[in-house]
Amino acid sequence: MDILIAGGTGLIGRKLTEQLILKGNRVFILSRKELKNSGELLHFLKWNGKEIPETAHQFDVLINLAGEPVMDKPLSVERKKQIIESRTASTFAFVDYISSAKNKPSVFINASAVGYYGNRGDEVLTEESPSGKGFLAEVCDQWEKAAGYSTIRTVLLRTGIVLANEGGAFKEIMLSYGFGFGSWFGSGNQGFPWIHIDDEIALILFAIENERVNGALNLSAPEMLSNKEFIKALGKVSEKKLAFGVPSFALQFGLGERAQVLLDSQFVKPEKALALGYKFKYSDAESALKNLLNL
User: Fold this and answer.
1) Could you tell me if residue 126 is inside a domain?
2) Which end is more exposed in the chain, N or C (fewer Cβ atoms within 10 Å of the end residue's Cβ)?
3) Do residues 94 and 42 make contact, with C-beta atoms less than 8 angstroms apart?
4) Phi and psi of 43, rounded to 5°?
5) DSSP state of 35
């Protein structure tokens, strides 16, 4: 298959591209930089984030993982606008491509996040749960609504906290363990919807290949843990001590509105993936952490 990806150079995009190529697919990555093609199966197309460039290729699968990061800068009014527009603009670019394509792709995979649900306390959240409140929920809601204009099978990846050694939240969490202890955020009672990078990639492949997958898809492990329970599992596996929680006020002072990424509670259940027969490679935190720590 010929597969077009935006956001293909990020943590998830790189891993996904590797697996797609291993399966013999040709992957075309949209990039804002001029990058040289690598072999017959990996190609780069320069784009502006708003329009897919004209090409002779007709794509079988479209994947959009693009979007400005949330945590790297304070959430000013202008920054919030950039975060939302980067996601909706790239999504509409794919929607426009679908609309004008003579031979329609079989599926459009569009990123989203568990932030869609907002801060929901102890509520168990499935794909049928409504959107929540707050900036992160607004971002995801607008992102998904943009993808809703697609006229082909469309899958919305509501991704949780991806655990990978190459980057992301897990790498940040492990920094504190360099000092011999681990800590949780705020009370630690908030839901911590995690997923191992291998299951993240496998679920995206599952969504591409399985025509029954449509609409929202929760990408999180079946074991629903609080932030403190996850840190305890990490402490057990790594034999490091737990220290203390980082107070909510300290996070809010240091990060401002971005602290909600760490403090909002989402106990997310991957109900659709389980119902469709997906088997998680790492369904519990201990097995996932042992793999990541080579234990």
Assistant:
1) yes
2) C
3) no
4) -130, 150
5) -
| DSSP conformation letters of 104-145 | --SEEEEEEEGGGG---TT-EE-TTSPP-SSHHHHHHHHHHH
pLDDT (tens digit per residue) in 185-211:
777 899 999 999 999 999 999 999 999
122-150 per-position pLDDT tens digit: 999 999 999 999 999 999 999 999 999 99
Q: In angstroms, what CA-CA distances link 30 with 27, 63, 85, 155, 212?
A: 10, 10, 17, 19, 27
pTM of the model: 0.92
Residue recorded with tokens 């293909």: 8
C-beta separation of 127 from 217 below 8 A: yes
Bridge-based pairing of strands 42-46 and 181-185 is unpaired
The total number of structural domains that make up the chain: 1
User: Would the pLDDT of 179 be above 60?
Assistant: no
The domain of 60 spans: 2-164+192-224+265-288
**Higher pLDDT, residue 79 or 154:** 154
141-178 as b/e: b if 16+ CB within 10 A = bebbebbeebeebbbbbbbbbbbbeeebbbeebbeebe
What is the crossing angle of helices 227-238 and 169-177, to 10°? 60
CATH number where 206 lies: 3.40.50.720
Measured CA to CA, the distance from residue 152 to residue 106 in angstroms comes to 7
Which element (helix H / strand E) includes 56?
A: none
pLDDT tens, residue by residue, 100-120: 998 999 999 999 999 999 999
